[in-house]
């Protein structure tokens, strides 16, 4: 790439001058300067070229706390990236028509910081305050905009909670959960009773010897911010009428990052969800540490978590199982009737894109209705494990026998932005 700079005067062009890495030659009144190096440097050090300045639209979907871009790569959520994303959301709010909301942008003060984090740095306090400001003004957005933004803000909240960990590794008291053998009322009791009433098994607390390890998953879509391993655990009801899975993610120091649990009834198909978070008004605070204890009566569940689990967990079976992996260890996992989630009002399992047996990609199971997040999983499954890890169907260049089916899926995914 070159830039031509106007030069006065004519006559015979002077010979090439070489000054360091720069080259100058005048031709017919113009000076030609190769500036590829300069342009690269400009893009690297400018805010427009930096990977640390994403906007909310750059987050294609969120999967268990991982912000994923359109190229299915994880977005690093450092403080610069979080600040940039928050500013992009505030611009959306400012541009929304409303007579209710006042000024946004630079008016946040550390006094707005939620009391759960009294000892964090000034920078984190600023980001937490801005997060609260966004929550206060998000009602100005349209319904579709609110759904889009809220689904992505959850990962910002989790990252800020992780950054709020004290330097010595101690956790803020508000996100420490310990099991208690008592009969007093707990926040999750009502949800547990609803699950029991629908014959859904209740998972053991963590840790508990009833959880059986099935091995580690090697895939990107099992990743989590800072996590390096994902181990699969299962719990089976003694009567064979229910099954629970837990995905346990740890970082390079063997700290727990995430422990998500899902349980399903064989008879009713109903499924319930838990995660190692303490739900908050503005964000869910993740429970992390070298050794943690989780009580299903107090940890986050399908009735109060901010993350909408049914964006991915949908279809005839709540469990997303890839053949030949530790997820496939329990063979008798299909419910007697189609799965129904037990969660919040917008948690749903709509009619499938294809019923079982209707296409090349639905010979063994139905093909769930697509969402942007679910389409990301479909693509990765087609590339790596479905219908077999030995001979996957493929996505960009599918195998001939799956080409029509994959193209149909890609068209449906494109319609939902996936």
Give a quick summary of the entry.
The protein is of the alpha+beta class. 24% of the residues lie in helices and 18% in strands. It is globular and about 55 Å long.
Description:
The protein has 418 residues and is of the alpha+beta class. The chain folds into four domains: 44 residues, no CATH class; 108 residues, no CATH class; 157 residues, no CATH class; 69 residues, no CATH class. Helices cover 24% and strands 18% of the residues. The chain contains seven helices and 15 strands. The strands form four sheets. Strands 7, 8, 9, 10, 11, 14 and 15 form a seven-stranded mixed beta sheet that branches. Strands 1-4-3-2 form a four-stranded antiparallel beta sheet, with no helix packed on it. Strand 10 and strand 11 form a beta hairpin. The radius of gyration is 26 Å and the shape is globular. The N terminus is likely disordered.
């Amino acid at each position: 790439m070159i830039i031509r700079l106007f030069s006065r005067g004519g006559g015979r062009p002077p010979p090439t001058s070489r000054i360091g890495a720069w080259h100058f030659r005048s031709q017919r009144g113009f000076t030609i300067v190769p500036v590829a190096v300069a342009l690269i440097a400009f893009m690297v050090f400018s805010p427009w070229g930096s990977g640390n300045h994403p906007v909310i639209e750059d987050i294609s979907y969120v999967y268990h706390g991982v912000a994923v871009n359109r190229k299915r790569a994880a977005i690093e959520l450092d403080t610069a990236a979080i600040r940039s994303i928050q500013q992009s959301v505030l611009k959306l709010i400012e541009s929304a028509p409303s007579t209710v909301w006042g000024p946004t942008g630079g008016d946040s003060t550390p006094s707005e910081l939620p009391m759960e984090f009294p000892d964090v740095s000034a920078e984190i306090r600023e980001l937490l305050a801005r997060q609260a400001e966004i929550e206060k003004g998000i009602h100005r957005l349209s319904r579709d905009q609110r759904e889009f933004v809220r689904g992505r803000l959850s990962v910002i909240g989790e990252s800020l909670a992780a950054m709020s960990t004290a330097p010595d590794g101690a956790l803020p008291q508000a996100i420490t959960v310990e099991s208690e053998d008592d009969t007093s009322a707990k926040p999750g009791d009502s949800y547990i009773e609803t699950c029991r009433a629908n014959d859904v098994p209740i998972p053991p607390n963590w840790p508990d010897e009833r959880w059986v390890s099935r091995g580690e998953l090697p895939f990107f879509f099992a990743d989590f911010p800072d996590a390096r391993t994902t181990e699969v655990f299962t719990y089976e009801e003694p009567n064979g009428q229910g099954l629970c899975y837990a995905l346990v993610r740890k970082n390079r120091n063997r700290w727990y990052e995430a422990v998500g649990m899902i349980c399903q009834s064989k008879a009713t198909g109903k499924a319930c969800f838990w995660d190692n978070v303490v739900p908050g008004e503005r964000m869910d605070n993740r429970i992390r540490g070298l050794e943690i204890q989780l009580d299903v009566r107090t940890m986050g569940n399908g009735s109060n978590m901010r993350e909408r689990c049914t964006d991915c967990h949908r279809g005839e079976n709540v469990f997303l199982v890839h053949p030949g992996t530790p997820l496939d260890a329990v063979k008798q996992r299909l419910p007697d009737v189609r799965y129904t989630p037990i969660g919040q009002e917008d948690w749903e399992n709509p009619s499938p894109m294809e019923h079982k047996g209707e296409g090349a990609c639905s010979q063994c199971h139905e093909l769930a209705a697509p969402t942007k997040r679910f389409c990301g999983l479909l693509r990765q499954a087609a590339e790596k494990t479905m219908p077999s890890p030995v001979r996957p169907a493929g996505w960009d260049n599918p195998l001939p026998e799956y080409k029509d089916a994959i193209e149909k899926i890609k068209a449906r995914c494109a319609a939902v932005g996936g």
